[in-house]
Structures are given as C-alpha cells and as structure tokens.
Amino acid sequence: MTTAIAFVFTVLATMIVLFVSDRLRLDLVAIMGILALLLGGILTPAEAVAGFGDTTVLLIAALMIVGDGLLQTGVAAWIGQRLGQIAGVNERRILVTLMIPVAILSAFISSTGTVAIMLPIAINIARQAGISPSRLLLPVAYAALTGGMLTLVGTPPNIIAAEALIAVGRPSLGFFSFTPIGSLVIIAVTLVMVLFGNWLLPMRVVSPTEDTHGPTLAELVADYRLTEGLAQVRVAPDSPLAGLTLAEARLHSRYGVTVVGIRRWSDGQAIPSPARAVTAATRILAGDLLDVIGDDAAIATMCRTERVIPQTLQLDLPFGPELHVMEVALTPRSRFIGQTVATAELRQRFGVTVLGARRLGLPFTGDLAHETLRFGDTLPVAGSPTQLTKILNEQRTFGDLAVVALPRDLSTSSDRFHRRAWLAIAIVVAMLVLMTGDWLPTVTVALLAAVAMVLSGCVPINDVYRRLSWESLVLIAAMLPMATVLTKTGGAALIARELATALGTFSPLVVLAGIFIITGFLSQFISNTATSVLMMPIALVLFSS
Questions:
Q1: pTM of the model as a whole
Q2: Where is it mainly found (predicted)?
Q3: What CATH number is attached to the domain comprising 327?
C-alpha cells in the first residue's frame, strides 16, 4: 500500500465516521474531504471541482425541477386524493392501494417529494380507518424508497451507476434496465407488509372519523390530550390585563402562557361569542373569556397575579369565523426538523398558535415548547383564515409543512388539477419517450424537460432555486471526485484485488453477492449516494479483471 493510498483511505474513513456521527451536514463533510485531498496533493484543483460540472449533478437537478412541476401543478396531489377515496377502511387493502402507486410515482419524482405528498393523505386515511398513522407511514416510506429502483431516474445511485459505465467506455444502462428487478423488490416488500405487517408494524388503535376538514376543539382535546394544557379564564374588571394588547401583556414571555382565542359577551348574551383569532395587536377587555394554553402551574400563577378567574373548560363552545384550527405535518425536508416548537417560531412566521403535537399517532406529554420536532410530527395550529392561508402558501413554496386537515371554510380545489397540469403531464410523457428511445443523451432530455416546465409556468421561475435540494446536489458533486481518487491512486484496484483474493474461489454470483452485502451494509450508516460513488469504481475494477 502506497502512502497516497493510505492517506486516501484515512480521509475516507474519517468521512464515514463523520457521516455516521451525524454531527455535521453530509454536504459539509464531503466538502471537507475534497479539501483534505486537495491540500494533500492527491487531487488537482480541476479534479476537486469537476463534480460540480458533472452531467450526473445536472441530470439530478433537472429531474428535481421536473418532479416539482408535477407537485406544483397538483398532479401528484390529485393522484394521492384519488387513492384516498378508493382505499376504504380494510388495512390490507389500504396498504396495497397506497404502496404500489407510491412506488410508481417515486419512479419518476424524488422519494422525498412522493412522501411529502402522501404524508397527509396517509394520515387522513389512517384516521378514517381508525388505525395508527405509523402503520401506514412506514410502508409508504418503504414503497417510496423501493420505487426508485424502477427507472434510471428513480434515484441518484441509478444515475451514478449509468454515468460510471459511460466513463469507462461501457454501454449505459437503459431507462427501464432497473424495472424487472425493481418490480420484484416492490412486490416482495408489499407482500411482506400485507402478510406480516400486523406483527411488524406498531399496533396503536385510534378512533375513526369521517371528517378531515378541520378538527373540532373536542376532537383536538381527545387526540392531543389538550386538557393537560388548555384552559379558559375570564378577565376580571379590576385585572391589570384589561385594556392591554397581547403584545403589551407579554403573557407568554412572563408566564409561558399563550392566548389561543378571545370570546366576548354582548348585551343580553347567555354565552360568549365564538372565539376569534388573536394577533399581537388584539386588545384584552374586562369580561373577556380567554382560551389559553400552557402549564397548569403557569396558568395558576397568571391567574393570581393578573386577577383573571379560571373557568370550567367548555369544549362545546364554537370557534368563530375568524378562528380556525388546521393540522399540519413536518415533511421530510422541512427546515423545522431538529428545531423545537419555540425555535421554529411558527407564531412569529405565520401568527398561528401551536396547540399540541403527535408523533407516530401518540400525543406529546412533555414540555411542548422545547420538544425537538421530527419528520412526520403533526401539529394542530389555530389562527385566522389569513394566518392559515400563509401556511398554505408556504406549503406550495417551500414544502416545510404538509396540511393534514383543513377547515371547510378554507378548503380549496387542491384535489383538482391546476390549469397547467396537463402541460406538466405532457412534458413528463415527452421526456420519458425521448429517454426510452435513446435519441438524445439523458441529461439533454432532462434539461429540455426542466426548461419546458419553467417556460410553461408549471414551475414559477422564482421558485426554481428554492425548490432544489442543494444539500443533496452539493453532496453528490463533492463525492464524485472520490471515485476519481480511488481510481487515480490505485485504491480501487487494491480493494478489488483483496476482494478477488478472498472470494476468488467462489463463483461470480458469490462475488456479486459480496459486493451487494458490503454496499448494503455501508448504506445503513452513510448516504446511499455516497456509498454508490465509493463502491462503483471498486465494482468496475473487480468485474473487469
């Protein structure tokens, strides 16, 4: 082993440790690896940055834009809505109805985008059927991942494999080269979930419901155990809060208590008016009934200090037209993952109040404000139609939150095609025909389709750069030079020789199984994209010798 190979292996081992530790972002680790090899004299500057101009990166970026066209125009959501209508309430039927179409959809758009679309639909179907959302979310995730095995563009490792073959002068993989094996894998995964899911998946039964257009207060209390933090208090005539705005009262900063809504009595009324939404400028009046949420001890302290009177919680009091409750869930690429409810600042961003949270079908029981958010967490948020519309707009633009349940008054035609949906479908069909026919290079076809999506208005030009997954693109671009390094220094040949020595007495199928197992093992700890970049040159050298 030469000094150069030893240095390269040391850098790669360090990168793998950092990947596994998850202390730094994957793209940052990859950039650090490039810098180490550049400073060590292993890579030239041109070789170090070659990945950023590689056709693989351009192809993946173009496909992200094409997939986003299907999302933006409502095609993917429409498919999901139709699935929700035919799924029924039988769990096995639901699994088949969800998993097969999800896998097919994931063959053409990213698995992340597919899961983001199907997340709220799966949660709603679970609620209607009275089963735990986790019993559907896990199979949906498996289907989205295995669906990437169906086509050349289904997942970045497929593209990397095709480009690696071209780089060594071998014929590239065809668009449907992966389909036979991918189809068998999807069928196998679906059968396992259908036949054995009853034992493998978490068993948590919830009450079925037919209404997914915005939960009532009583439903929220039952689903999220809000009675542990929800209270109603009445402002006494001599309360120091009377006449103050919510910004001036500073109830959250002083007591950790959040005002969700305000109810007022008019002359002659036996019950207060329906709750109205609040903002920082909302003024508190004597006699107001405040819907508040917070720790029991904090609410008690506020009542004593501010002379407000605790009331019996009346769950049958209605919300007014100015106050609605919407349920949202965190998508796979949400910026809020890893943040707490407090640091996510949803109230500052949208003006809404987070009422509770559920994870895998179970409500949070601890300190909600400081609970770290994860993918799939569902949050009921209260606010005015204007405030909730901001979340709807955010969902379309950034995709951090997926709407799970929408108030009827805010229900839109989201289950119908956008007027440009047929254009998006036509562009995708044309792209698939050209890729299958092999008349033009795959990257050229993908770039043409991406430009067509933008020029046709299916993807607003201002959204293009916001919707790209830059972390994934930089990771791929920074990892591609690693393949160059392994080939250039002889590291790939060294590993291939050792594997050939260890497995040389066995048949080629056993050697192939060995490569498969090693690759699968590494991908459990580091990105499958990074794994494919590292293993591709080794496999090519091994099977060429």
A1: 0.62
A2: membrane
A3: 3.30.70.1450
